[in-house]
Amino acid sequence: MKCRSCSAEIDAKAIVCYRCGAPTTDPATLRPARPEASGSRATLWVVLAVVLMGAIGVAIYLTYFRPV
Fold first, then answer.
1. How far apart are alpha carbons 65 and 67 in whole angstroms?
2. Which residue range(s) make up the domain with 8?
3. Has residue 56 been placed in a domain?
């Protein structure tokens, strides 16, 4: 088999050319990167909102409905 880049004779099982380093196959199609940061941020905002609402609920309970 010949390298597509430098025409060197290479083994049929080679992944890259030993002479120029060019890959012997076309690169696989890459999937778009997952937006993990935005998903994590959304989750963080939801958790913070729930904690804040809980804190407000406790403050209201302690202020107005606390048993004496």
1. 6
2. 1-26
3. no
Whole-prediction pTM value?
0.42
In a domain, 34, yes or no: no
Q: Is the dihedral of CA 14, 16, 17, 23 positive or negative?
A: positive
Q: How many domains does the chain have?
A: 1
CA distances to 17, 42, 59 from 55, in Å: 63, 20, 6
Task: Quote the pLDDT of residue 40.
Answer: 76
User: From CA 15, how far away is CA 18, in angstroms rounded?
Assistant: 9
In tens digits, the chain (68 residues) has pLDDT values of: 899 999 999 999 999 999 999 999 887 776 776 665 566 778 889 999 999 999 999 999 999 987 76
Q: Strands, DSSP E only, in 1-68? A: none
User: Considering the domain boundaries, does residue 7 fall inside one?
Assistant: yes
Q: Does residue 11 lie within any of the structural domains? A: yes
